[in-house]
Specification:
Elements: E1 8-12, H1 19-35, E2 43-47, H2 50-62, E3 68-71, H3 88-93, E4 98-101, H4 104-109, H5 114-126, E5 130-135, H6 139-143, H7 147-158, E6 169-172, H8 186-203, E7 211-215, H9 223-227, E8 234-237, H10 244-257
Helix pairs in contact: 1-2, 5-7, 7-8
The structure holds 2-phosphoglycolic acid.
2-phosphoglycolic acid (PGA) binds near residues 215, 217, 218 and 240.
């Protein structure tokens, strides 16, 4: 179950970078990706801030790049009086193929609940985007032995059943591992990924086709070990995605893992 899925290495640039920075970074990664040739064996996704998304995506499209572009969030409606928001249709129009939803920074700071994320995921799919739905426990929840139950509750509330399959990605991101340099023990990552897989497959047979990413302090040193774990089909990378020299070894680790 979930074995043999093409790995996905996603860079979440968060609220970082000017247009010039984003274009430079995307071009540097595109050159490396191109050098892998036709059988790269790994999908690479860049999620720039929305101010840079269109410029980066059209620059890559002009160059015939194989890199994917994604948004970091979207609204649950395709258009309307929602000042400051961006719709899934607009992201798609700008060349995005994916959208990150329910990142813990949005759950915590923008008070997004599972049902908000569910509505966004339905709208994203309707616009032709692949949602990357993030779940993860806080440190207090982990220390109380609640990690698995919290994650299953988040999955039940935020993942639309009819969306489960190849056109959905789930990212396990322990809140306490994001940007801290701390990561769970390999056995703990494997246990949560296996629980996520069981949850998805328990709801729909197609759950075996959904790629499961690990995120939280992934870097060039730990990527290979994390990506070799069962049911880890890629990584969602924050800090290390802001530099081609730090991000690329993670992509290489993803390539290696496709033979596991
Ligand atoms: P990090 O962020 O790699 O900087 O820990 C991961 C994320 O927030 O997606």
């Amino acid at each position: 179950m979930g074995i043999g899925l093409r790995p996905l290495i996603a860079g979440n640039w968060k609220m970082n970078g000017t247009l010039a920075f984003g274009l430079d970074l995307a071009q540097a990664l595109d050159a490396r990706y191109r050098a892998l040739g036709r059988e790269a064996g790994v999908d690479v996704l860049l999620c720039p801030p929305s101010t840079a998304l269109h410029a980066v995506s059209s620059d890559l499209a002009r160059a015939g790049s194989g890199l994917f572009i994604g948004g970091q969030d979207c609204h649950a409606h395709q258009a309307g009086a929602y000042t400051g928001d961006i719709s899934p249709a607009m992201l798609r129009d700008c060349g995005a193929r994916y959208v990150i939803l329910g990142h813990s920074e949005r759950r915590a700071r923008h008070h997004e609940r599972d049902d908000d994320i569910h509505a966004k995921a339905v709208a994203a799919r309707a616009a032709g985007l692949i949602p990357i739905i993030c779940v993860g426990e806080t440190l207090a929840e982990r220390e109380s032995g609640l990690a698995q139950s919290v994650i299953c509750r988040q999955l039940a509330g935020s993942v639309p059943t009819d969306g489960i399959g190849a056109d959905l990605v789930v990212a396990y991101e322990p809140v306490w591992a994001i940007g801290t340099g701390k990561i769970p023990a390999a056995a703990d990552i494997a246990a949560i990924h296996s629980a996520i897989r069981d949850h998805l497959v328990g709801r729909v047979g197609n759950g075996s086709l959904t790629r499961l990413l690990y995120g939280g302090s992934v870097n060039a040193e730990n990527a290979e070990q994390i990506l070799a774990l069962p049911h880890v089909n890629g990584a969602l990378v924050g800090g290390a995605s802001l530099s081609a020299t730090q991000f690329w070894p993670i992509v290489e680790a993803g390539r290696k893992s496709c033979s596991k």
